[in-house]
Amino acid sequence: MTDMKPIQVGLLGIGTVGSGSFQVLQRNQEEIRRRAGRGIEITMVADLDSARARHIVGPQVQVVSDARAVIANPQIDIVIELIGGCGVAKALVLEAIAAGKHVVTANKALLAQHGDEIFAAASAKGVMVAFEAAVAGGIPIIKALREGLTANRIQWIAGIINGTTNFILSEMRDKGLDFDVVLKEAQRLGYAESDPSFDIEGVDAAHKLTLLSAIAFGIPVQFDRAYVEGITQLGAADIKYAGQLGYRIKLLGITKRQHNGVELRVHPCLVPAKRLIAHVEGAMNAVLVQGDAVGTTLYYGKGAGAEPTASAVIADLVDVTRLHTADPQHRVPHLAFQPDALSDLPVLPMSEVITSYYLRLRVADQAGVLAQVTGLLANAGISIDAVLQRQADEVGGAAAASTDVIILTHDTREGGMNAVLAQMQALPAVLEPITRIRKEELS
């Protein structure tokens, strides 16, 4: 064991993940020192609530309310940024890099939107920006993609990477309830924020997927090109019908390599119940990766929380500590591919995406309607996998004069499907807006 003095770390923001990181580092410091070759100590913490911060870290650690005091301290080698958001956090990360400090961050929004600029600044300065904690909490998915699967040409990734939405969908399925009811319950239990829009609209998942996509395919981060659709429109009826057809509905982040570009999309999906990922319940996360040599691999675990996320933060601290003195050329590139070797493969617009579909039409209960609907699909060259007809639930005691028609299609281009949906919606017998949910076999 070397007698090097411990590496000194400054922590910006000591909320849930920050306090978890401090505690796990203290609890396992001997184990971590044996692995890293030297001690790792958080010696300085910046938080606006300095009284709370002092209570967490005790008298040994210097507490300040100004993050810039941490960046200015020449003793600090690594800065952990856990403030979040793209405002002050962006300025502080760039200032830390300019000051020659390595950065460890859990900030997926910042990296998904400004990663190219931040990584370029870090490369120019010869420092590392490590972000394992930014995607899927404690699951080491970034490390698996950047290092473990580096031999592979990655073909696609599909992940449940937002715990809040997965918890809501699990509850909707278990209890047969609609979205709004379950959301209130999730907020009461602390699974959803008071303003849950980032989660339920799919934005958080899209931030994480953007990073996974860049690492998998060696393209720049392009969050603004992602297709993002949340779970607010999903009803209990569709979850029930999906179950009857042998599927479960999950909010997936999907990125695929096609010959003409990369798919980058977040939306609800029907997934076959026989797939392992269909059984990921509650707030758990799971990521499937398909590589040409390895086949399919699955990474499963806690995607959020103080200690699972701290697990990823500290793994990054250990990596940075080991490589601190290494020649920058010998480190793993931020986005897995050498910065001068990034591909200009474009992100495909949603209209170019190829997938299959679940369609639910509320139609008048009269002869010939089904033939009209299937005729429109046939004309467009879209083949049908299955059709299910169900008496619509009676509303207000009135006799049901309408039927639910559920259609599963084979693979087709989204642009073509959009055109057919417009034709179907225009049929006089179609009584309500058509529900369309994409279907992924993940085989």
Describe the protein in words.
The protein is an alpha/beta fold. It folds into three domains: 7-138 and 306-338, Rossmann fold (3-Layer(aba) Sandwich); 141-302, 2-Layer Sandwich (Dihydrodipicolinate Reductase, domain 2); 355-439, 2-Layer Sandwich (Alpha-Beta Plaits). Helices cover 37% and strands 25% of the residues. The chain has helices spanning 16-27, 29-36, 50-57, 67-72, 88-98, 108-125, 141-148, 163-175, 179-189, 197-200, 203-217, 236-244, 306-323, 369-379, 414-425; strands spanning 7-12, 40-46, 62-64, 78-81, 102-105, 129-130, 154-160, 227-228, 247-258, 261-272, 284-291, 295-302, 354-364, 384-391, 402-409, 412-413, 435-439. Strands 7, 8, 9, 10, 11, 12, 13, 14, 15, 16 and 17 form an eleven-stranded mixed sheet that branches. Strands 3-2-1-4-5-6 form a six-stranded parallel sheet, sandwiched between helices. Helix 1 (16-27) packs across helix 13, helix 5 runs parallel beside helix 6 and helix 6 (108-125) runs parallel beside helix 11 (203-217). The chain is elongated and about 80 Å long. The model has no long low-confidence stretch (mean pLDDT 92).
Structure at a glance:
By secondary structure, this protein is α/β, with parallel strands linked by helices.
